[in-house]
């Protein structure tokens, strides 16, 4: 199957048909499974053969989603969880122990920041931050007890980028696990494992569902690492429900066409914003003005669906822009068919101090747009009237 193209795998990799020969894979709502006999039960529990035991471990729908995501991203296998945060927690909790240190990109998803700063320190796990656009901070940031490097690229909402191949080489040299939150790019735009990362994580809640309906998390990597993830997840219970797995697996069938359009629309929006006199700065990976444009071109297929810009006039101008939008939704979510505008300084990043916000590139006038799949003329028209 993996010889085939992305779109074909996303559509044609399916769980085995049942006796009803359905064309579209059905939803398996069952918490547990029957054994043929006592010997079958013993062998399954002893992991001497493959098969379903209990839906906290595996279910035909979650197995299909794992197999498909692994094939799409070039991973040996994977694991799925109820949310993106459960995927991040499960991964870090599996590979870290008391006394270990995590080196992480500074601008990480808000709840990831909370895990690193408030949850893991309770168990004696420390962290430090490095900036994506300053490679020397990564080289210098590695300590003797650093066990995991955690990175989000492109970052949210600053759209900074780091060279993943370079970072993977650095991690390998120091025998550190490189974990990439690949949520913004999806496997269609960026494949961290092929660039040398050990683990790739997705919040499937964003582009993989793509329609704002469900939560989900996905962890991808080698069979050896996933065995350890499984060991932790089977017993701690962050399982994804069969319904969500069924929904997400269907969503993957359209991921490529959706991402193509998200990216096409977003590039047009970014280019338009760059030409506006009351826009101070536009951040988008595939704009030539992006400081890491060359790296973006090297490791991403397209620029993604998120455009961040800074409006002249600070918080007042930003609020004015948001209030004038007629079609865009004001929401903290992203990766939806509907275009969304967010003002990070007063929402997702309001708990940071002004200095911390500046460190992750958020100004009072910063606005993050998640460009949806409405007609691009209508998206541009709405932005244009709100800017004027
Ligand atoms: C949303 C998000 C998460 C968390 O995912 P949930 O599914 O909401 O738990 C993690 N990382 C990034 C980059 C995200 O955007």
Beta-strand content bin: 5-15%
- Shape descriptor: globular
**CATH architectural designation of the largest domain:** 3-Layer(aba) Sandwich
Number of domains: 2
What is the mean predicted local confidence, pLDDT? 96
Q: Report the biggest beta sheet as strand number plus sense, adding barrel if it closes.
A: 7 strands, mixed
Terminal Cα span? 51 Å
Are there runs of 5+ residues with pLDDT below 50, and where? none
Radius of gyration: 21 Å
Kindly report the spatial arrangement of strands forming the biggest sheet.
Answer: 1-7-6-5-4-2-3
Superfamily (CATH H level) name of the largest domain = Type I PLP-dependent aspartate aminotransferase-like (Major domain)
Count of DSSP helices? Answer: 15
Order of helices and strands: HHHEHEHEHEHEHEEHHHEHEHEEHEH
Bound compounds, each kind once, are: pyridoxal-5'-phosphate
Number of strands: 12
Function: Catalyzes the formation of L-homocysteine from O-succinyl-L-homoserine (OSHS) and hydrogen sulfide.
Pathway: Amino-acid biosynthesis; L-methionine biosynthesis via de novo pathway; L-homocysteine from O-succinyl-L-homoserine: step 1/1
EC number: 2.5.1.-
Modified residues (N6-(pyridoxal phosphate)lysine): 206
């Amino acid at each position: 199957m993996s010889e085939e193209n992305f779109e074909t795998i996303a559509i044609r990799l399916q769980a085995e048909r049942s006796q009803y020969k359905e064309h579209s894979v059905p939803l398996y709502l069952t918490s547990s499974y029957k054994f043929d006999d006592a010997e079958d039960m013993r062998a399954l529990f002893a992991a001497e053969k493959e098969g379903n035991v209990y839906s906290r471990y595996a279910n035909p729908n979650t197995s299909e989603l794992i197999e498909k995501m692994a094939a799409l991203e070039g991973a040996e296998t994977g694991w799925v969880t109820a949310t993106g945060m459960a995927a991040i927690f499960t991964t870090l909790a599996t590979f870290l122990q008391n006394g270990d240190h995590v080196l992480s990109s500074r601008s990480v998803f808000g709840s990831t920041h909370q895990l690193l700063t408030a949850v893991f320190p309770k168990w004696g796990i420390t962290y430090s931050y490095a900036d994506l656009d300053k490679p020397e901070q990564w080289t210098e940031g590695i300590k003797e007890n650093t066990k995991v490097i955690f990175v989000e690229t492109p970052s949210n909402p600053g759209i900074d980028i780091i060279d993943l191949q370079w970072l993977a080489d650095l991690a390998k040299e120091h025998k550190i696990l490189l974990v990439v939150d690949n949520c913004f790019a999806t496997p269609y735009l960026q494949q961290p494992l092929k660039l040398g990362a050990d683990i790739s994580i997705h919040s499937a809640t964003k582009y993989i569902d793509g329609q704002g309906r469900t939560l989900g998390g996905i962890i991808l990597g080698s069979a050896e690492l996933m065995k350890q993830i499984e060991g932790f997840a089977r017993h701690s219970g962050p399982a994804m429900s069969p319904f969500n797995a069924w929904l997400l697996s269907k969503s993957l069938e359209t991921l490529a066409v959706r991402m193509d359009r998200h990216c096409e629309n977003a590039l047009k929006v970014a280019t338009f914003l760059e030409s506006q006199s009351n826009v101070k700065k536009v951040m988008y990976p595939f704009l030539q003005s992006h400081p890491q444009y060359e790296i973006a071109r090297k490791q991403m297929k397209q620029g993604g669906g998120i455009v961040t810009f800074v409006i002249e006039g600070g918080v007042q101008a930003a609020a004015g822009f948001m209030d004038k939008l007629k079609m865009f939704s004001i929401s903290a979510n992203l990766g939806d068919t509907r275009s969304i505008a967010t003002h990070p300084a007063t929402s997702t990043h309001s708990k940071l101090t002004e200095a911390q916000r500046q460190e992750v590139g958020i100004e009072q006038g910063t606005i993050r747009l998640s460009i949806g799949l409405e007609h691009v003329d209508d998206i541009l028209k709405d932005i244009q009237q709100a800017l004027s």
